[in-house]
Structure formats: structure tokens, C-alpha cells
Design a protein that fits this description.
The complex is a heterodimer of chains A (184) and B (579). Chain A has 184 residues and is of the alpha+beta class. Chain A has a domain of 83 residues: 2-Layer Sandwich (Alpha-Beta Plaits). Chain A contains six helices and nine strands. In chain A, strands 5, 6, 7, 8 and 9 form a five-stranded antiparallel sheet that branches. A four-stranded antiparallel sheet of chain A has the order 2-3-1-4, sandwiched between helices. Chain A is elongated and about 65 Å long. In chain B, helix 2 packs across helix 3, helix 4 crosses helix 19 and helix 17 crosses helix 18. Chain B folds into three domains: 172 residues, Rossmann fold, CATH 3.40.50; 154 residues, 3-Layer(aba) Sandwich (Rossmann fold); 190 residues, Thiamin diphosphate (ThDP)-binding fold, Pyr/PP domains (Rossmann fold). Helices cover 38% and strands 16% of the residues of chain B. Chain B contains 24 helices and 20 strands. Chain B is of the alpha/beta class and 579 residues long. A six-stranded parallel sheet of chain B has the order 3-2-4-5-7-6. Chains A and B meet through helix 1, helix 2 and helix 6 of A and helix 8 of B.
């Protein structure tokens, strides 16, 4: 059965790494629902957060293929209950629509959205939350004239206690264990 | 990762030339890595490298092939027989794209080849300049790692990294794309071999607990079977495999690329696995209660229908590439380590045993296969010559001492089935990719890598013509490789499938061929053509006695089929002996 997975990849900051990762997903016919790239807490290490829908069996195979890439350090796969995650959305709504009646109170505040900018023509709102919350706000704003709508990819933090730094340390130690390469 | 000070301490000053061009830095880096042979083809963007190559003639031999694909296959074969990475040069654009088949071939068969391609000057990248292709993008899915270098001072470190990645872990091809300006720009040359990359760790601590569990299972099994693959040869674990099999008394089957990893004449050897493998190991895979898979990846040509594969068996998988474990077949014990290290740890844990009753089942299968398939194929008394009898004779005349190179198709399957290998790494074949045209250039690469060995390439009339221009390489360097053209005037394997599955509708498989003897002679290569059984032995002897290269064309029965066969979609236990 297909379900939603969040893949967190810690990689070297190399050109082309995203291409290598998408090739793996493309070969397995997996669509990317959302993607975010940023610097991680460790200097020089990039964090890619991907959301995909696939089976538990397939995500394990795909994660191993990703971790096999030379420039990928560590891959974590999480179901939604194992992480804390958010998306951010921006809405550009007509001022006329939004100022009529009690919309600000009933819709904007009720959804914990924030006003970023006000002009005679439009008002820009910001909303942070889960995908469903953002979609819900969008549908409620639509009658008042949404001029533009943009949504970010998912950003996620894991609930597990062990951090990347300790994995990097382990990898260093494993390296010390090493024997000579088999060839030559 | 490393401090300036460390770099300083280990820096190597070569002949006092500290200020050299990127091209020289490339060549000196290769020398530092122990390279002495390069296969390649020049062109505009790589001219600075070739210009400097002349200055290093005493240390680096360059073999000019007739097509970049030939250089790629030759470099791969060189790597397979020497255990050293193969090196291949090509220019930008078409030079680089012509390598792609060869790169993919090395990738699927886990062979370390360092490909160096030239790129247009960095200012022109992305502008669709003359002979510009995005070879980094093109080769991304078929390389273990690739990298573009635009600054000359990055060349030594990138080359060092490329060699480390190509050779370590599960080996594979890497590609370095160097811009023309980086080849010309000067740098202070210092070289330090790479032995650590933060994001890549091929040295996995031994999973001792898993190995101990495996030992318990092995000690309790009643019908165990070892399935060994290319990983045994790559990790150099042939002696350990033999010791393990002999101590436990467990029969051994090999994959196509695993052949020569266990002696063909050993009493515990049960034959080759797979679509055209032997009857016993295919049929009895589904009777085994324990499968010990070592350095193999359960390819679909080996497993047949996965839903009916090894259902009675507990499966132990010893495999260095974690991504291969549980990919096709779900296993019970994962041992994600190097085959040699695992076997060394495992051997003292297993008890001495013998499985005579179980092995007798294989021998019964062998007898059936011999009567129905092997005897008529290798010892026919009348009719046209058969591929199997040619391979059997070559095997007998060379006493299993030769290095066998094959093309792809029926010639490949017969060579794999009927040659009796007695030394590791003595089969060079295109396994995962099944690349027609591999045989001739691979034969050249193998002979250059092992000039001390008799190297015999079996090719079909179809595959021969895919890379026939490499006869020019043989001419130019007088490479004493022996080529046997098994000519049935068909694309034999495709015709066999048309025969069996497409109502004998021989669509585009019949070949009207040129005179191969005349072509060979035009390249100054001695050649003869044989069609009669009574001439076969003497012509093979003539070929083997020849000091230089030799082409022996053998006219083969037109519609011979390879058996046994596990038909596509069938289970290994449904292996067929006849049509």
C-alpha cells in the first residue's frame, strides 16, 4: 500500500547531486510531491527534504540506492508521525474582498495566518502549517479573490535523538577500521 | 578533511617539475596511480593531453582504437584480467558520447574504469559550442561517480578521488570531464593518493553477529547450495570460496560473471546458473533448503520468475553493495560486507560436513543434461559444425589455461557453458548489458593486459561486424589475440527466440555477410575459414600455434539453439532441455 514518506538526505554541497537523486526516483516511477534544499546544521552539508508517495518496500530500496551515491552521506526515511514538519504559503488577495465583512477575523485570524503587506489593491498573507491546513485556508479565501498563491516544499525535523553529527563521527571511526581495498 | 600541513608533508615532487600544465598533471597523476596503459582516441578538445602524451612515451603506452566504444571495452577487459583500473581517453562531444555504451557496460558488471573526457573551454560550456555535450549529465546514471574539472589545480585531487572510488567497495566506472583551458593552465603539481571521502565509506565493519547466525544455519542445513558471483572474483575470494565449499561439502553454482571463480572441474562444482545455465543448479535451486549467495545480485536472468524462486530455502546474502540486498529477492540473513572478509570469518565457524545424497541429485541432472544436450552439442557425429563442439575442442587444446573473451548471444552462452576454466579471471564477457560488439575490442584489451596468456575471443558474425573496425587496432599494434568467428549467418540468439516464441518469423535476423577472411587479410591478419568437421582440429591448432593475431572463421549450423533454457517468465525449476 502506498503511503507518504519524508526522505531527508544529507549530502555534500556538489553540483548535480539533485540530478543523481531524481534519476533514482524516475527509474522507479516515483513522483516528487515536494522538495526543499537548504544548508544543514553542519557546515558544508546540504539537507534535501523530499516528500514522496510509495510503498514501504520500495522506499527502502530507493533509500539504499540514494545512500549508495558517493556524495550522499546519510539518508533517513520517515513517516509523517516520526517528524515535525511544516510548509509555508503566501497568498495575494484583493484588498476589496478581504476588507469586506468580517473576513480578517473569521478567516485570517482563525487560521493563524499573518498579514505581511497591505496595499490599496492587494493584501499579502502568510500561513505556516501542514499541507491540509494551507489548502483549507486557500479554499476559504478563494471567494474573496486570490490573485496569487505560492507554497513551499516541506521542511522537517526528526523526533529521533541521534543527530547527524554523531553519524558523521561513526563514519569516521568506521573509516579507521578499514582494510586495504580489494583491487590493487 | 586535511590540513595544508598534511598535504605539504606527503607532497610528491616529480622530476623537479612543480610548475606544469593541467595536461601534464593529468598524465603524472595517472603514473602516480600505477597506470602504464591507456586506451583512447584523440580529438579537438583533448589535443593538449595528447600533445603531452608524447613526452611520457617511456611510461605510458597509448593504444589508439578505431572508435571510442572500442577503447571503452578494451579498457574494461584490461581491468578484468589485470585487476588494475582500465584507463580510457576521449574527446568532447561525439568522442564522449561514443563511450556511453562502454561506460554502461562497465557499470553493470562492476568493473573499475577511469574515463577521461575533454570538454570545450569553460567559457563556452552551456552555449552549444562545437563538439559540446553535457557528458556529466549523460553519464550520470551509468557511472559510479563523475566530475567536471574547470581549474587545472583541481586535476590531481580529482584524479586521486576517481581512482579511490573506482577501485573500492563495489567497483565501477568513473568519469572525469576536463575543460580544454584546464588542460592548458599551469599549476604547482603535488600528488597525494586518496584514501578517505567523508560521504563515502566502502569499508564496512564486519557484521560478525550476522555471520555467526549464518554459520548456525549452515551447520543445520540438509540441502544447502552456494550461489557465487562476480563479487568472489572482485574481492579475490576464490581460495576462501574453495576452502568454504570443501570444508562444508556444499555444492557450488556460479553466475555467468562468477565463472572461473571456482574450478570447473571441481567435484563440488554444479555448473552455471541462469537462463542458459546448467540443468542441475537451476532445477535444484527450488529444492534447496538453504541458499548462500556470495557476491551476486539475483539478476532476472539468474532467478527467472521471482514468485517461484527458491521458495523452500532460507537465504543468506553476502554482498558488499547494500542496495543489492533485498532488491530482487527478500533474504533472511543480510551480510553487507566484502566476500573475502566474510568467508575468512565464516570458515572456522562451520563444521566439516558432506552432502553426498544431495550432490547425487545434481549428478543425476548432469547425466540427463549430458545425454539430451551436451553430447549432441559437443560431440555430434554428423551434420554441420556446432558451437559447443568448437568450444569443447578449444577448451581441450588449451587445457583450460586460456583467457576466454566472448561477444554476446549464442557464442557467449556456448563459450560460458563448455569452456573448462581453471584460473580466476579467465572469462571476459558482457554480462549485465549484453553488449554486442564487446568481444573484439575486449579481446584486444585482455591480450594487452595479459600478454603472457593465450587470449581467445569468440564472436558471432553479427557482433563481429559491430566493432569490426578494431581489426585496425590489431594491425597497428600487432596484438596477438585469436579471434574465432562462429558464423551461422544469423543473429543467432534473436533467431532462437523467433523460432521458439514468434512462430519462426525470422524478422531481420538473417545476415548476408562479407568474406571475413578477405577482410582480415586486408588488415594483414592471417585468417582461414573452416566448414568441415575433419578440418576443425587442425585449423584450431594452426590458430593456437600462430605467433601473431589470427582470425578463424567457422561455419556453424544455421539454426542451432542453446539449451537448457529457462524461458522468460518461467521458474528455474521449469528449465527445459529441449524444444
Amino acid at each position: 500500500m502506498k503511503q507518504e514518506f519524508t526522505i531527508s538526505l544529507f549530502t555534500e554541497d556538489h553540483i548535480g547531486i539533485l540530478g543523481q537523486i531524481t534519476i533514482i526516483l524516475t527509474r522507479r516511477q516515483i513522483n516528487i510531491d515536494s522538495i526543499t534544499a537548504s544548508e544543514s546544521a553542519v557546515k558544508g552539508v546540504q539537507l534535501l527534504t523530499l516528500v514522496v508517495k510509495t510503498t514501504n518496500e520500495m522506499i527502502q530500496k530507493v533509500a539504499r540506492q540514494m545512500e549508495k551515491l558517493v556524495d550522499v552521506m546519510k539518508v533517513f526515511v520517515h513517516t509523517s508521525d516520526q517528524i515535525i514538519y511544516q510548509e509555508i504559503a503566501l497568498f495575494k488577495v484583493t484588498t476589496k474582498g478581504l476588507m469586506s465583512g468580517n473576513v480578517i477575523d473569521h478567516v485570517v485570524r482563525a487560521h493563524n495566518a499573518r498579514i505581511l503587506e497591505v496595499s490599496p489593491e492587494y493584501i499579502v498573507l502568510e500561513k505556516t502549517g501542514h499541507k491540509t491546513e494551507i489548502t483549507e485556508l486557500l479554499s476559504q479565501l478563494e471567494p474573496y479573490g486570490v490573485l496569487q498563491f505560492a507554497r513551499s516544499g516541506r521542511v522537517a525535523i526528526t523526533k529521533q535523538v541521534k543527530e547527524l553529527n554523531s553519524y558523521l563521527k561513526e563514519m569516521d571511526e568506521a573509516n579507521r577500521y578499514k582494510t586495504e581495498p580489494a583491487l590493487n | 578533511m586535511k590540513t595544508e600541513k598534511e598535504t605539504e608533508q606527503t607532497a610528491v615532487q616529480v622530476n623537479g617539475h612543480d610548475h606544469i600544465t593541467g595536461s601534464e598533471a593529468l598524465l603524472q597523476s595517472l603514473i602516480e596511480e600505477g597506470v602504464d596503459t591507456i586506451f583512447g582516441y584523440p580529438g579537438g578538445a583533448i589535443m593538449p593531453v595528447y600533445d603531452k602524451l608524447m613526452d611520457y612515451e617511456d611510461k605510458l603506452t597509448h593504444i589508439l582504437t578505431r572508435h571510442e566504444q572500442g577503447a571503452a571495452h578494451a579498457a574494461q577487459a584490461y581491468a578484468m584480467v589485470t585487476g588494475k583500473p582500465g584507463i580510457c581517453f576521449a574527446t568532447s562531444g561525439p568522442g564522449a558520447t561514443n563511450l556511453v555504451t562502454g561506460i554502461a557496460n562497465a557499470f553493470l558488471d562492476s568493473v573499475p574504469v577511469v574515463f577521461i573526457t575533454a570538454q570545450v573551454v569553460s567559457g563556452l560550456i552551456g552555449t552549444d559550442a562545437f563538439q559540446e555535450t553535457d557528458i556529466i549529465g549523460v553519464s550520470m546514471p551509468v557511472t559510479k561517480w563523475n566530475c567536471q574539472v574547470k581549474k587545472s589545480h583541481d586535476i590531481p585531487e580529482t584524479i586521486a578521488k576517481a581512482f579511490y572510488i573506482a577501485k573500492s567497495g563495489r567497483p565501477g566506472p568513473v568519469l572525469i570531464d576536463i575543460t580544454k583551458d584546464a588542460q592548458l593552465e599551469k599549476l604547482d603539481f603535488k600528488y597525494k593518493k586518496c584514501d578517505y571521502i567523508r560521504s563515502y565509506n566502502p569499508h564496512i565493519p564486519l557484521h560478525t553477529k550476522a555471520i555467526e547466525s549464518a554459520a548456525i544455519m549452515i551447520n543445520h542445513a540438509e540441502r544447502p547450495l552456494i550461489l557465487a558471483g562476480h563479487g568472489v572474483l572482485i574481492s579475490g575470494a576464490e581460495d576462501e570460496l574453495k576452502a568454504f565449499a570443501e570444508k562444508t561439502g556444499i555444492p557450488v553454482a556460479l553466475t555467468l560473471l562468477g565463472l572461473s571463480g571456482f574450478p570447473s572441474n571441481h567435484r563440488l562444482f554444479t555448473g552455471m546458473l541462469g537462463m542458459h545455465g546448467n540443468y542441475g543448479p537451476n532445477l535444484l535451486t527450488n529444492e534447496a533448503d538453504l541458499i548462500i549467495a556470495i557476491g551476486m545480485r539475483f539478476d532476472d536472468r539468474v532467478t527467472g520468475n521471482l514468485k517461484k524462486y527458491a521458495k523452500k530455502a532460507t537465504i543468506i546474502h553476502i554482498e558488499i553493495d547494500e542496495a543489492e540486498i533485498n532488491k530482487n529477492v527478500l533474504v533472511d540473513v543480510e551480510i553487507n560486507n566484502d566476500a573475502k572478509e566474510v568467508l575468512k570469518y565464516l570458515i572456522p565457524l562451520v563444521k566439516e560436513n558432506s552432502f553426498e545424497k544431495w550432490i547425487r541429485e545434481f549428478r543425476i541432472c548432469d547425466k540427463t543434461e549430458y545425454e539430451k544436450v551436451i553430447k549432441p552439442e559437443t560431440k555430434p557425429e554428423n551434420g554441420d559444425l556446432r558451437m559447443g563442439e568448437v568450444v569443447r575442442l578449444v577448451s581441450e587444446l588449451t587445457k583450460g589455461e586460456a583467457i576466454i573473451v566472448t561477444d554476446v548471444g549464442q557464442n557467449q552462452m556456448h563459450a560460458a557453458r563448455y569452456y573448462k576454466f581453471s584460473h580466476p579471471n579467465s572469462l571476459v564477457t558482457s554480462g549485465g548489458m549484453g553488449t554486442m560488439g564487446f568481444g573484439l575490442p575486449a579481446g584486444i584489451g585482455a591480450k594487452i593486459g595479459r600478454p603472457d596468456k593465450q587470449v581467445i575471443a569468440f564472436v558471432g558474425d553479427g557482433g563481429f561486424q559491430m566493432t569490426i573496425q578494431e581489426l585496425g587496432t590489431i594491425l597497428q599494434y600487432n596484438v596477438p589475440v585469436k579471434i574465432i568467428v562462429l558464423n551461422n549467418n544469423y543473429l543467432g540468439m534473436v533467431r532462437q527466440w523467433q523460432d521458439m516464441f514468434y512462430d519462426k518469423n525470422y524478422a531481420s535476423t538473417e545476415l548476408i555477410n562479407p568474406d571475413f577472411v578477405m577482410i582480415s587479410k586486408a588488415y594483414n591478419i592471417p585468417a582461414i575459414k573452416v566448414a568441415k568437421r575433419q578440418d576443425l582440429n587442425s585449423s584450431l591448432e594452426e590458430m593456437l600455434a600462430a605467433k601473431g593475431p589470427f582470425v578463424l572463421e567457422i561455419v556453424i549450423e544455421k539454426e542451432g539453439n542453446v539449451f537448457p533454457m529457462v524461458e522468460p517468465g518461467s521458474s528455474v525449476s521449469e528449465v527445459r532441455l529441449t524444444y
